[in-house]
UniProtKB/TrEMBL annotation:
It comes from Microbacterium foliorum. The gene is nadC. Keywords: Glycosyltransferase, Pyridine nucleotide biosynthesis, Transferase. The keyword Oxidoreductase does not apply. Involved in the catabolism of quinolinic acid (QA). This is Nicotinate-nucleotide pyrophosphorylase [carboxylating].
Amino acid sequence: MLTPALLTRVVAAALDEDAPWGDLTSVTLLPADATANADLIAREPGVFSGGAVFSIAFTLTDPTVTVDVHVGDGDAFTAGDVLASVSGAARSVLTAERVALNFTQRMSGISTLTAAYVRAVEGTAARIADTRKTTPGLRAFERHAVVSGGGRNHRHSLSDAVMAKDNHLAVLQRSGLDLAVALREALSALPHTTHVVVEVDRLDQIAAVLDGGAHTVLLDNFSLDDLRAGVALIGGRAQTEASGGVDLETVGAIAATGVDVISVGALTHSARALDLGLDVRID
């Protein structure tokens, strides 16, 4: 969640990184009393995310700068649209410009890509979810952008849910432990509100996972036929999630197999920054 404290901490660190001793160009070239009115312009269509981040980059630099965001997170826009306006001391506006754009371009790229995945599964019951494949330190920002695009958030961190993946299962097997028994013991020790997900990569693993009481069975890198077979085998006894091999060309067919959730790492690790620019008005 993008709390005010988190926004302030992360954006302040970005501003300090970008201008540790101030903006040498603006301070030496621009008059101290010069002002600037600038617009955030979309160079291409997309779905917006990061309005609060864009604003705070300027106000942390200079509280007297005024920022008006004209669209909400999750709103679609077209090329040429004015998404926000900034007014204030020219030195301050230009000092904050790149940090404000870096966040907003990145977040809007994620929300735009997520929206494309959500459109691709329309007409099915499948939900598009993100993963923990995020930029270190920016997870809350990127996950906010996923929601802006109509997607859902998976667990936020290792502390939020039990998610046994292939390496966890390999350790259990090497230790001579039965998966179903290990799951039941884990569930008995966990709070009743804790969700348990187990990843499988073969159909013959599903029975033990169900026997152990997992809430979600993650079908990893399954073929379409095996996804359909897995959904039928689970038969509503647990939530079904598909992952692996998911892109915009395959996600529709994956959704049609009947899975409940499709987790897509590409939403955050492969989204292209959207082309947005801050243009100072000369008039």
